[in-house]
Write a structure and sequence with these properties.
The protein has 145 residues and is of the alpha/beta class. Helix content is 47%, strand content 17%. The chain contains six helices and five strands, in the order βαβαβαβαβαα. Helix 2 packs across helix 3 and helix 4 runs parallel beside helix 5. 40% of the residues are buried. The model has no long low-confidence stretch (mean pLDDT 97).
Length: 145
């Protein structure tokens, strides 16, 4: 799967760990930065990743910041993006099944690397359910219009 990934300085370490993990699992990764622990502005990176996913250049996106809140707010401003801040496997699974989330957001302060890898694995492998959930996703998409 083609995945766009990005983080601010607070999520840099977790991003690096996830990039290595996902590449080993055979995914194609485009890293939008940041590329160091130096302070940076999360909206710039969050927007770049989200815009690339919305334009369907990538199947999914992953964003990381200290709390996950800033990246979530940024991502969900982009038409066509349904970003989900997930800190548990069950929530990640449901974000895909029920909401067809296309951007996964992590709070680096709350989700250690091993847990993030489990969450990402489930999130990337879960399909959207369709049915009544598809109808609701269409309603969300209408709000973007």
């Amino acid at each position: 799967m083609k995945i766009a990934i990005g983080a601010d300085h607070g999520g840099y370490k977790l991003k690096e760990s996830l990039v290595r993990f996902l590449k080993k699992r055979g995914h194609t990764i485009k890293d939008f930065g940041t590329f160091s622990k130096a302070s940076c502005d999360y909206p710039v990176i969050g927007y770049q990743v989200s815009k690339a996913v919305a334009k369907k250049k990538f199947s999914r996106g992953i964003l990381i910041c200290t709390t996950g809140i800033g990246m979530s707010m940024t991502a969900n401003k982009v038409k066509g993006v349904r970003a989900a801040l997930c800190n548990r496997v069950d929530i990640a699974r449901l974000s895909r099944k029920h909401n067809d989330a296309n951007v996964l957001v992590f709070a680096a302060k709350a989700v250690p690397s091993a847990k993030a890898k489990k969450i990402a694995t489930i999130w990337l492998s879960t399909r959207a359910s369709g049915g009544r959930h598809k109808r609701r996703v269409r309603q969300i998409n209408k709000i973007d219009s």
